[in-house]
Amino acid sequence: MTFGRFLSDRLGRIILWLVCFAAAVLFLAATGTQIDVLIILLLILLLVFLMVQATDYLRDRARLRELESILENLDKKYLFTECVPSADNFYKRCLFDLMRRAGQAMISAISDTHAAQRDYREYVESWVHEIKTPITAARLVCRQVEGEPRRKLDSELAQIEAHVERALFYARAESPEHDCVIRPTSLSEIVSQTVERHRTLLMQSGVRIETQGLEQQVYTDKKWAAFILGQLLQNSARYRGDTPVITISAKPLAKQVQLTIQDNGIGIPAHELPRVFDRGFTGSNGRSRGGATGMGLYLCKKMSGFLELDIQLTSEEGVGTCVTLSFPAKENLTRM
Amino acid sequence: MTRTSKIMIVEDDSAIREELVLLLENEGYQVFMVTNFATITDQAIREHPDLILLDIGLPGQDGFALCAALRKAVSAPVIFVTSRDSGLDEVRALSLGGDDYITKPYSVPVLMARIRAVLRRSIDTSEHLDTMEAAGVRLSLTKGTLTSAGRTVELTRNEMQIMVCLMEHTGQIVSRADLLDALWDSQIYIDDNTLSVNMTRLRGKLAELDMPDLIKTRRGMGYQL
């Protein structure tokens, strides 16, 4: 607050006072008060008046600064009205009280939303766990069916599982600190578990997988990394070419280990590449082959952020797609 | 497998339980399923299973405490089955003496592979030999060689796994799908065409041993040793 703004706020009252001073001076002069006395009186009055205005200004400015610094230091700024000291006069207190009531209404609305969100997340998680039992039962029953119907059922079940898994990780990615445990993990274990999990899809797609140099240790969460890798394998199998080969290889690079997943699939058009990690983006391949959700790579990107994992995708139409994941190989994580 | 292993199933979902019994019996295991969940430990002591498949999400019970009690009572290995796959659970399960951990929904080949692996680790290790012999050939698993009548050929990893799978089922027909499953179990992720290529090479090597017809092709069914 500048002094000018302060004065302009009080302009009406200041003019009124000055008019009163002038009227009093005129009255005293008319009733015969000596001009010397009048000047002294007027000077004293003006001096007192100016001092009052100046102290008011300084006090208001100090208070405003204090309030600003409180707001500045608050983590959740909407709790501001709960944290400020009470005002010094009744009118201001009433104003503040109004603000506080408005603020409280908003805070309770926000905490309701938070609670609803948390409930929803918990429901999704428990739902996912519940649904796994009937899926498992269906998988077992499926073994009694022979031939083509079994193959088809198996692949439908694998798709259901993939969708369920994405839903679970979508819910988990909202609050990663609950689930993510970073520790030294063997890369080959992540790869073999993921391949095992997506075996139905991969085998039915006639995919051959070649692995190279996976005997590395990385710092990551095994389940999350396996999920990310799983999305990539599913993509490679879904958008495969004639004789699909997926090469999974790893090489150490300074403080990182680079895991490369290279396929010889149909590839992604160059103009779509910048958007592949966008939420809900399916692209021309996804639309023409159907079944794309636009969530897989979005989740990969989001989750790799939490794992401090760098994810890069290059692709050429008709040649294949290559995704590189750079895992931290040393315990130099800052956030988790 | 020289004798049938007995597997005890602790699973509260009746559909899964019954299917598991069928499936495991078809695979040649002896199965005991628990239907009374109040006295699991006593039943385990009475039945002497070779392996326990334990669902840790039993209603009204702490699966971890149950596992600890089971480990104290019997020496059989325990495979946990759970639908909850948070990382902490896994650490806890394995630290409590679980031998393996599998999350629902598991696929059947995966479950079978885990069961076989755990049984192989626990049941007398002498059965897990370095060499296998069948139909007049001797396969050395450590050297990766196949020997017959004094002649020896070297096998690649893929060829060796194919040979192992066929020798484990000597006399039986092994379908291409079963062979692929077995190879994927051993982390050899090949497709059907590559299997054919490997098969041809393996037969070539068998021809060097003067046994070109050792592996018979049963049209539309698979292979037979």
Structure description:
The complex is a heterodimer of chains A (336) and B (225). Chain A is built from 11 helices and 7 strands. Chain A folds into 2 domains: 3-105, no CATH class; 183-328, 2-Layer Sandwich (Heat Shock Protein 90). With 336 residues, chain A is α+β, with helices and mostly antiparallel strands. Chain A starts with a helix and ends in an 8-residue tail after the last strand. Helix content of chain A is 60%, strand content 14%. The model of chain A has no long low-confidence stretch (mean pLDDT 88). By secondary structure, chain B is of the alpha/beta class. In chain B, the strands form 3 sheets. A 5-stranded parallel sheet of chain B has the order 2-1-3-4-5, with helices on both faces. Chain B has a 4-stranded antiparallel sheet with strand order 6-7-8-9, covered by helices on one side. Chain B has a 3-stranded antiparallel sheet with strand order 10-12-11. The longest helix of chain B is centred in the last third of the chain and has 17 residues, at 192-208. Chain B is built from 8 helices and 12 strands. Chain B is elongated, with a radius of gyration of 20 Å.
List the SSEs and their pairings.
The complex is a heterodimer of chains A (336) and B (225).
Chain A: H1 3-9, H2 11-30, H3 35-73, H4 80-83, H5 90-142, H6 147-172, E1 183-186, H7 187-197, H8 199-204, E2 208-212, E3 217-220, H9 222-238, E4 245-253, E5 256-263, H10 283-289, H11 296-306, E6 310-316, E7 320-328
Helix pairs in contact in A: 2-3, 5-6, 7-9, 9-11
Chain B: E1 6-10, H1 14-26, E2 30-33, H2 40-47, E3 51-55, H3 63-73, E4 78-82, H4 87-95, E5 100-103, H5 108-122, E6 131-134, E7 137-140, E8 145-148, E9 151-154, H6 157-168, E10 173-174, H7 176-185, H8 192-208, E11 216-218, E12 222-224
Parallel strand pairs in B: 1-2, 1-3, 3-4, 4-5
Antiparallel strand pairs in B: 6-7, 7-8, 8-9, 10-12, 11-12
